[in-house]
Amino acid sequence: EKGGYEYFMLKEIVEQPQAVADTLLGRVGVDGTLTLDEMRLAPSELRDIEKIVIIACGTSYHAGLIAKYAIEHWCRIPCEVEVASEFRYRDPILNRQTMVIAISQSGESMDTLMAVRYAREQRARVLAICNVNGSTIPRESDGVLYTHAGPEVGVAATKTFLTQLVACYLVGLYLAQARNLKFGDEINAVIEQLANMPQQVEKVLGTVGPVRELAKSLADSGTVLFLGRHVGYPVALEGALKLKELAYMHAEAFAAGELKHGPIALIEDGLPVVVVVPSREGRGVLHDKIVSNIQEIRARGARTIVIAEEGDDTVRPFADELIEIPAVPTLLQPVVSTIPMQVFACELALAKGNDVDQPRNLAKSVTVE
Ligand code: F6R
């Protein structure tokens, strides 16, 4: 059942182009029309939404953080993201015009389920994004959008994360179409690019070979830091989480702009720092800022491991290791930039002799609060 791979995780990483394609299947028409019938929200309800609140845990929470950037930009609806275990204890402001999106691969995370119940008591509309058919969270929600990643056996979320991103983009683009024709051209262009993501994911998988060697060379590091800006920041958080859970290593992620507010003091000779460089398209300022961040940490001795768009020559002089990913629109970049992070953590963990399918102390679905 592992399809010739030693671990499910390795197989699940390779299955990502298919998982992404299956999640898009039947939802994106040739003319760019989106069909998300299972959402079960009437057009009038979609137009009435005044606020979106995303709740999730762990990796699913990182998908939510990325969704916020996309939804606010495309739909102009204020969007909050919160860790499910914190959500209901802070007296959040919810009403009929609030759409709560609960993201859960398993559909069984107790923290997320309790947050869903709370949101419904407060009369919010709850949409679940979930990978397991008929699981508890979608059953208790008003609507559902299933990710079609297929079963994920490895404890660490990989293919389900990519498909959660796709599902979040679909919801954002669908809302934008339903509410706001002003951005029509941009929205249509993004839909076209989204439809092309399976090929881009395939392309990344073809080029991550060097990441394996790199990961092995870092098995003795005490700490790895991750930096990103904009949607690259949640990708950095995801990279750090993967390294903690699989390689049992200390890893921390920062918004690159926060460096100078404290974390830069951590930089010392030889410290590995993974940096996600934003796409050049449309966000030149962000791109230039991160290039200076890379220069700053390198001047202080960091070993820079840079994930950047292919052909991005501006970062090359400051990258001790350069990992190239295809050029895609900024908001979609996490779909490709996450993959080197997964491979990096997986290989590093394997180099340490860890079982990547069953990391210590962890369970695939966390059914206690
Ligand atoms: C990380 C991981 C966990 C889950 C979290 C939420 O690789 O697998 O952080 O993402 O426990 O699980 P779901 O999405 O099932 O609610």
Describe this structure in words.
The strands form 2 sheets. This protein has a 5-stranded parallel beta sheet, with helices on both faces. A 5-stranded parallel beta sheet has the order 7-6-8-9-10, sandwiched between helices. It has 14 helices and 10 strands. The protein is globular, with a radius of gyration of 20 Å. The chain has helices spanning about 10-15, 15-25, 45-50, 60-75, 85, 110-120, 135-140, 160-180, 185-195, 195-205, 210-215, 230-245, 285-300, 335-350, and strands spanning about 50-55, 80-85, 100-105, 125-130, 145, 225-230, 250-255, 270-275, 305-310, 320-325. Strand 4 (about 125-130), helix 7 (about 135-140) and strand 5 (about 145) form a beta-alpha-beta unit. The longest helix is centred in the middle third of the chain and has 21 residues, at about 160-180. With about 375 residues, the chain is α/β, with parallel strands linked by helices. The chain is about 45% helix and about 15% strand. Its EC number is 2.6.1.16. Keywords: Aminotransferase, Cytoplasm, Glutamine amidotransferase, Repeat, Transferase. Catalyzes the first step in hexosamine metabolism, converting fructose-6P into glucosamine-6P using glutamine as a nitrogen source. GO terms for molecular function: carbohydrate derivative binding; glutamine-fructose-6-phosphate transaminase (isomerizing) activity. Homodimer.
